[in-house]
From TrEMBL:
The gene is xcpT_2. It comes from the Bacteria. InterPro entries: DUF1559, N_methyl_site, Pilin-like, Pre_pil_HX9DG_C. This is Type II secretion system protein G. Residues 33-339 form the DUF1559 domain. It comes from Paludisphaera borealis. SUPFAM superfamilies: Pili subunits. The lineage of its organism: Bacteria, Pseudomonadati, Planctomycetota, Planctomycetia, Isosphaerales. Pfam families: N_methyl, SBP_bac_10. Gene3D superfamilies: Glycoprotein, Type 4 Pilin (3.30.700.10).
Length: 360
């Protein structure tokens, strides 16, 4: 009997099959990555939604919105660090045990003073709270390690250049500071203070968390949105032209420009400082995902955490924009290409701007 030979694949056929599989994988991977990012963005949206609901519950209990910083308090240091809005919201985001464990008699730095955080409050302040962290951020170590940081930041307000030259700057947002104020009208903000309408006023957004150790970052670096640079801009009272002058100076910085600081964004979730905006707040000055810049004329240029006359825009790793929680509790996605006057308008709580719902 004749033996029958079994015919196998030729080399060409094998290469064709491999090529087809490679093409299918190349087509599939972006879809998988896109689906994963969509899930992360949905989780980020939910985190902001929960913060918005927490604020409304906070208002029900306290009749005011939480503040960026409670400075001055009896426990804070002479330079103004005090409790931030994150600490006050703990009971309203299902973190009552953490809130109850915090010893307010010790303060942020402890009664002895010095430069060490939370003496006696380490357990609480070192918590990494999932509701304060965007899953798309990608940073594993917090900037004030081992202390916990935050991806979510409160609306500090619109451009300081649009404010009166006699005021402290951009105190027109929903998360306002309590310390170092010269404006006699500055203080806690209630829902009645949001005269522009809660659906047209920002409450929270997100910022990419800073880097531990504050390494030097150039403007061309992939982590440039996590850093803060310094530009020369005008002071308060210079109007829209002054805002554009600041943004032009910030955008004109050469790609090789080194950062002033790269650990400021979301530095801690539990502490705040009135002039250190980037710690737990952001401003409506530069467009979303643009570079952050201090203003060298702001308080003598020492505000390396971004001051009221600088630009600390929201930022994220979501393609094309950032998530933003409005004062009515809704969450919207703001594109990087948003019209700047519109962006400034939703940053103020009582600016009287006329804003269309399809403008952002």
């Amino acid at each position: 009997m004749r033996s029958r030979s079994v015919r196998g694949f030729t080399l060409i056929e094998l290469l064709v099959v491999i090529a087809i599989i490679a093409v299918l994988i190349a087509l599939l991977l972006p879809a998988v990555q896109s689906a994963r990012e969509a899930a992360r963005r949905a989780q980020c949206t939910n985190n902001l939604k929960q913060l918005g609901l927490a604020v409304h519950n906070y208002i029900s209990s306290n009749e005011v919105l939480p503040m960026q910083s409670l400075a001055p308090t009896a426990q804070d240091q002479s330079w103004g660090w005090s409790y931030g809005w994150g600490l006050g919201l703990l009971p309203f985001i299902e973190q009552q045990p953490a809130f109850s464990s915090f010893n307010f008699s010790l303060g942020i730095f402890g009664n002895a003073g010095g430069n060490t955080y939370q003496q006696g409050n380490n357990t609480v302040c070192q918590l990494k709270i999932a509701g304060f962290l965007c899953p798309s951020d990608g940073v594993k170590k917090m900037p004030a390690d081992p202390n916990g940081g935050t991806s979510y930041v409160g609306n500090y307000g619109g451009p300081g250049q649009l404010a009166s030259a006699a005021s402290d700057g951009a105190y027109s947002g929903t998360i306002v500071p309590n310390g170092f104020k010269t404006d006699p009208n500055l203080g806690p903000v209630g829902i009645e203070s949001i005269r522009d309408g809660t659906s047209n006023t920002a409450l929270f957004s997100e910022r990419l968390i800073g880097l531990v150790g504050s390494p030097s970052i150039t403007k061309a670096d992939k982590d440039a949105k996590r850093a803060i640079f310094t530009a020369a801009g005008p002071a308060a009272g210079t109007g829209a032209a002054g805002v554009q002058q600041l943004l032009a100076a910030c955008n004109a910085l050469p790609p090789t420009t080194a950062s002033t600081r790269s650990d400021a964004n979301g530095y801690t979730w539990f502490a705040g400082y009135p002039y250190h905006i980037a710690v737990n707040a952001y401003t409506h000055v530069g467009a979303p995902n643009s570079v952050s810049c201090n203003n060298s004329v702001d308080q003598g240029g020492w505000l390396t955490f971004t001051g009221p006359l600088g630009s600390a825009p929201p930022s994220s790793n979501h393609p094309g924009g950032v998530n933003m929680a409005m004062a009515d509790g809704s969450v919207r996605f703001l594109k990087d290409s948003i019209n700047l006057p519109t962006f400034w308008g939703i940053g103020t709580r009582a600016g009287g701007e006329v804003i269309s719902s399809d403008a952002y």
